[in-house]
Structures are given as structure tokens and as C-alpha cells.
Amino acid sequence: MEKHNIQKRECQAIRKVFDAAKDPNKVMIVGIDAAKATHKAAICNGHGDQFCKTFNLRNDSEGVAFLHARIDGLCHKFSLLQEHVLVGFETPGSWAENFADTLVTEGLPVINMHPANVKKYRENATTDNDKLSAQTICRCLNQKEGSQRLVDDTYSELLMFSRHHGRLIRQRTQTTNRITTFCDMYFPGLLDTQKSGIPCFTEPGLKVLEKLSIHLVRKMSARQLAERLARYGLPKPQQKAQQLKQLSHKALAPTPEKERCMQFEINNLIQQYRLLCDQIDRAFQEMACLLRQTPLASV
Fold first, then answer.
1. 155-298, what's its fold?
2. Superfamily assignment of 12-151 in CATH?
3. Burial of 194 by CB count in 10 Å (0-12 exposed, 13-18 middle, 19+ buried)?
4. DSSP states along the chain
């Protein structure tokens, strides 16, 4: 009969190590409080008895080598097995990501813990220093809380590209909103396709917004404007020139000073918009290449 466990939040990677060791005294727990320059590390067994004093780890390759040497020495001293070692981080910031990833690739099981859980197990709520934090992380591991940090593979790379793609989409939306806001003052109604006849946020539409102001459209003849729109790649340029001329006479124009400033900002925003569109396409292509490398792609 299948066994069910009531500890739903228990980390199975930690549970597996404790079960394999059979005795909490044979489990080595390493708690690391990450920092930009120097980490603080504490080492204890499954009962919380410390093997050594809390020590410093440099955030570089020498720090990783020192940690391995300290773990090897303690394993030999207390007759422990390397596969019964657990390393815990309070979810590391960008400055400690490579340190944690290096430990994972070198065979150490690394457990990430949410800061809220670390705070929950801190015994002294009014005092927070690196030494106490490292010990608290050991306490979290002892309670089997956290999530295992996995080795990077195609799926993790795909996830990173997907998140980057999402950030680019949000940035483009912000840029689009800013362009719309400025256009409401620079050339009211230009982004309303029914009024202007210009498809907004297409390359021809961006060229119109980039090159033509409300005062310039008023000064140009319908023929000159149609020729300009044709060069921008707009279909039916004569019809759109008439619509644009009518809109320019109905719309309220900004002052010349405000118009020059807004034209400068709009042109900069349009450059950002084009760059973001290009980056979004490239990120999408990278995701497509990664998807083709997954096992299910050949099914």
C-alpha cells in the first residue's frame, strides 16, 4: 500500500539525505548566509550540533575550494559520507548566484530557502547578523524546509529566455504607452486609425510620427503629402493624405517650443520601440531553437 506523508511542505531532497544516512548524526548541514564579498557559513549535524565555529567564505573560486576542503576534512574527522552533505542558502541574490550554481555543478545538493522561512526560524527576532543567519539556515534545513536548486539544462535555459522575453514585452508596452501619451499632445488623433488613416505602431506609421508634425502637414499640399506617404510604404497614399490634412486642420496644435521638445522625445522612444521589437523577435527565435532540442520536439 502506498504511504502518504502529512508533511506536505517537506523538501524531498532533504528527506532523501536523512533517510539515506539513517542517523541525523551522520548528516552534515552547511548553512551559508550569502553576501557580495564574504559569505558566512555554519556547519552542524542533523541534530544541530555544530562541527566547527562559524567561518567566512570568499565569494569566488577560492571560497568554493575552501568550502570543499572544510567539508572533506570534517567528513574524514567525523566519519561522514559526501552524499550525506546538504548546503542551504537563503535564496541568493545576483551576487551569489554563480557561487550556488558552482556548488550544484560540483555535486553538492543545494537547497534554496525563502526569506520568510528563515525569519520564522530565527531565535532572536531583534538581532540579525551574518553568524545568526547562517545558523538559522541550518535550522531550516534541519526542519526539512526549502526547495532543491537544480542543475541548469535546456529547460532552465528555456525558462530564463521566457522570463527575459516577458520583461521585454513589458518594456515595449511601457514605451508604447509613453509614445501614445506624447502623441496626444504632439499630433492629436494621429494614432486613431479611423481618423488619420495611418496604421499605428507599424513601420510606415512610425515613420509618419517620426517625420511629420501637425504644422508640417498643414503647410504641405495634398500631392506633396501623398508622395511622402508613398515613400513611407503606405497604400492608397492620396486617400490617406486627404484624411491626414483634414485631421491636421481639426486638431489643436501644440506650441512650437513644446512641439520641438516632444518631437525629440518621440523620436527617442520610437528608436527604443524598434530596438525592443528586434530583441523580442531574437528572444523568441532563441526559445524556438531551445524547444527543438527538447525530447518531445521529435515526437
1. Helix Hairpins (1.10.287)
2. YqgF/RNase H-like domain (3.30.420.140)
3. exposed
4. -----S-TT--HHHHHHHHHHSSGGG-EEEEEE--SSEEEEEEEETTS-BSS--EEEESSHHHHHHHHHHHHHHHHHHT--GGGEEEEEES--GGGHHHHHHHHHTT--EEEE-HHHHHHT-S-TT---HHHHHHHHHHHHHTT-SEEPPPP-HHHHHHHHHHHHHHHHHHHHHHHHHHHHHHHHHSTTTT-HHHH-PPTTSHHHHHHHHH--HHHHHHS-HHHHHHHHHHTT-SSHHHHHHHHHHHHHHSPPPPHHHHHHHHHHHHHHHHHHHHHHHHHHHHHHHHHHHHTTSGGGG-
* 8 A C-beta contact, residue 95 and residue 101: no
| CA 75 – CA 246 distance, rounded (Å) | 84
Written as nine digits, the cell of 174 is 511601457
For the chain, which residues make up each domain, given as ranges? 12-151, 155-298
What pLDDT digit, counting tens, does each position of 157-167 carry? 999 999 999 99
Q: Each residue of 76-111: pLDDT tens digit?
A: 999 999 999 999 988 778 888 999 999 999 999 999
Q: Which three cell numbers stand for residue 258?
A: 513644446
Cell numbers at 61, concatenated = 573560486
Cα–Cα distance measured from residue 10 to residue 111, given in angstroms and rounded to the nearest whole number = 12
CB-side exposure of 255: number of CA atoms within 13 Å? 3
Cα 196 to chain centroid distance, Å, stands at 39
